[in-house]
Specification:
Blueprint: H1 3-9, H2 16-40, H3 51-78, H4 82-85, H5 89-102, H6 117-141, H7 147-152, H8 156-183, H9 186-194
Bound molecules: protoporphyrin IX containing FE (2 copies).
One protoporphyrin IX containing FE binds near residues 22, 126, 178 and 191.
């Protein structure tokens, strides 16, 4: 059969919308982490000329992230693909088999529906931590109109520390995600660009 015809018939692993959104929120999260860590403790290694350029980068990335995150949540519910991302009972049952394979105690690669339990748990981490990052970030940005949130956090300094702690959590999740991405083989990596494995 003609290859193009075959590609047309095959269902993509990642739809165009999912891929476009991934390549909006992923660089935004990475830029927020990079510029945020500079804002917390400026150092030459980050490559920013000064605080102003780091703040500008954070500003652009933070609002791109908010848009892309909300759009992804909407798309997840509209297409019901949140079921692929969030763990279920089967994910928990598969966890010991997955951990044994990751710890090199089992050489046969287990098969899972779309995402492995590790990726699913990391994605759930993003689903929980990104809203907290966005809420604390908005309260830091709109200090006058978000005073109630600042009060809940017991002051601006605690709010800033909370935003920083959540950023650490997100950085760990990203590291885990990239570990799985780069150990799953080139075909999986390719699929987030082309849609197909
Ligand atoms: C994954 C997303 C994000 C990460 C990893 C992140 C990380 C950080 C970090 C580490 C800091 C430095 C905190 C400190 O001073 O110790 C910071 C500052 C800040 N972030 Fe975020 N952030 C993210 C998203 C957002 C969002 C969505 C907003 C707002 C809508 C936001 C608004 C701010 C503001 C206003 C500051 C203070 C900047 C300044 O002092 O000039 N951040 N962020
Ligand atoms: C350069 C950095 C990154 C690369 C190369 C990358 C690569 C990938 C790949 C290959 C997949 C598909 C995995 C599969 O099919 O099994 C994926 C999915 C995903 N990635 Fe990333 N990623 C990156 C950064 C990020 C960041 C920073 C986030 C933070 C939110 C993130 C969140 C996700 C999510 C939520 C999915 C599931 C997408 C969906 O089902 O629509 N990625 N990524």
């Amino acid at each position: 059969m003609d290859l193009t015809l075959k590609l047309k018939r095959k269902k993509p692993r990642h739809s165009l919308v999912a891929r476009v959104l991934h390549w909006l929120y992923a660089p935004s999260v990475l830029t927020c982490i990079w510029s945020g860590f500079y804002i917390n403790r400026p150092a030459k290694i980050y490559g920013f000329r000064n605080m102003n350029s780091a703040q500008k980068a954070h500003f652009i990335a933070q609002f791109t992230l908010i848009f892309a995150f909300l759009a992804r949540v909407y798309y997840a519910f509209q297409k019901k693909n949140y079921k692929e991302i969030l763990p279920n009972r089967q994910t928990i049952q598969n966890l010991p088999r997955f951990v044994r394979y990751e710890l090199f105690l089992n050489s046969k690669k287990p098969q899972f529906p779309k995402y492995n339990p590790g990726q699913k748990l990391l994605f759930t981490g993003f689903v929980l931590l990104l809203p907290l990052q966005i809420l604390t970030g908005l309260a830091l940005y709109f200090q006058d109109s978000w005073q109630k949130t600042t009060k809940i956090a017991k002051g601006l300094n605690y709010l800033r520390q909370l935003h920083f702690l959540v950023a650490l959590g997100n950085a760990i999740l990203v590291a885990g995600h990239l570990y799985f991405v780069f150990t799953q083989g080139f075909k999986t990596l390719k699929s987030i660009f082309t849609g197909y494995k």
